[in-house]
Amino acid sequence: MLPIENAKIEKIYSSTLQLVADFGIHNTPMSSIARHSGVAIGTIYHYFKNKDALLNSLYLELKEDLIYAIMRDVKNTGSYKQNFLRLWQNYFDYLIKHPPILLFIEQSINTPIITSETRKSAEKTSFPLIDFFQAGIDTGTLKVQDVPTIIALVHGSVVSIAKMHISRQMKVRPADKLAIAGYSWKGLT
Q: Does domain 57-188 have CATH number 1.10.357.10?
């Protein structure tokens, strides 16, 4: 893809994220995305067949970016617990730096707009995270024996704390973040 095309797609994605955060998935028409992004609606339709295709493409991009951010600095060195705490904190940091992404992810969890094919593709990008949790099960470090359950528990704790922090219901300082990640760890071990 040419740099200009990348820039246009980034504008489309950025505007879609902001509009979905402000108005919801179902209340964000393509015309609003075009107006907000400054990209002609015909150009948007050149890249994406329809709004559903745009949302599915954006979902995949975000999942890929999210997994990369979560797994940053999580290595095969150090203790499993240290890596888990780093993973939890990476996830939290990513969400509080990108509130529209948090809102998009939350809205896309239960919508039929995100197709099963897209969800399967997104799962493939999640293999590093899945493998990390499976290693914890295989070594007996994690007592919860089901990766989807572990992902749901970690996701739930991170998202809840991130939402409270973003909405200023709770101030999460670095020491608090580590302690909260530790509570999540204790729940799984």
A: yes
- Classify burial at 141, counting beta carbons within 10 Å of its beta carbon; exposed 0-12, middle 13-18, buried 19 or more: middle
Tens digits of pLDDT across the chain (189 residues): 445 578 899 999 999 999 999 999 999 999 999 999 999 999 999 999 999 999 999 999 999 999 999 999 898 778 999 999 999 999 999 999 999 999 999 999 889 999 999 999 999 999 999 999 999 999 999 999 999 999 999 999 999 999 999 999 999 999 999 999 999 999 999
Predicted TM-score of the model (pTM): 0.90
Domain 1-48 part of CATH 3.90.228.20: no
- Name residue, tokens 């939350």: 106
- CATH 1.10.10.60 positions along the chain are 1-48
Angle at 76 between CA 136 and CA 71, to 5 degrees: 80
